[in-house]
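New to this. Comment on this protein:
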Amino acid sequence: MQHTRFEVVIFYFIALATKMQVSSEKLPIVLWHGMGDTCCFPFSLGGVTKFLESEINVYVKSIEIGNSITEDFKSGYLIHPNQQVNMVCEDLSTDAQLKGGFNAIGFSQGSQFLRALVQRCSTLRIHNLITLGGQHQGVFGLPNCPSISSRTCERFRLLLNYAAYTDLMQNFLVQATYWHDPLNESKYRTSSTFLADINNEQFINKTYVKNLQKLNKFVMVQFNNDSIVQPLQTQWFGYYKPGQDKEIQGLKESNIYIEDRLGLKKMYDQNKIVFLECEGNHLQFTKEWFRENLFSFLK
């Protein structure tokens, strides 16, 4: 059947409108950087922001703590995660471009900070949460530290080994708030001012469970040759078996999962949890890997 020129024009505009509608349905993306990084370094999250903006064509907001790059950098070490999460909750809640919801990507410690945001900030509509090299069960060791000297890194490690759960360290050093000593689980649960809380290990906060289960997908990326995060299985919510620091147990073997303290078991049964792996060192991925593995969760 032949169509008139008028009908062809109409069909063209209908198709164009449909395409624009599909494009408009793409959600914005929020990024949260890790330790030793900032929102906007061109060689790290600044580059990731431009990459996502150009390839997915959406609004991308890279979280900045404070009023300058210097303040943002220092925040990764010196501003308590609870304070950071409160600040980001308020900031994102007033961003008009995020009102319809967004996808979120956390990098290293930004991963658990974003998860805390999901659990605590009920005003936000977060569709998919992607964590790259996150420390969901904490860390027990700092073999390498990006962007700071090895001597400083060693001092951090010694401080955390001997004083992580003192009030001073819990309030002064960000990394102490997700330090998880498997040799002293009771001390960790009672003294951790951040991680033990967001993992519902002190008591079960039903709001955390409810908000986390609102996610469409919770995607965890583990870097199989990670030399920074110890143990690397914390990136998939695994950790050392309690009482020692050699043998690892996966998420399904942990009390958090068995007792479903965060609702992760229910999410797994609903096919909401996705485990991905990358063969690089910590946060070492290519654009090709990112496109192939993560773009489907960002559209």
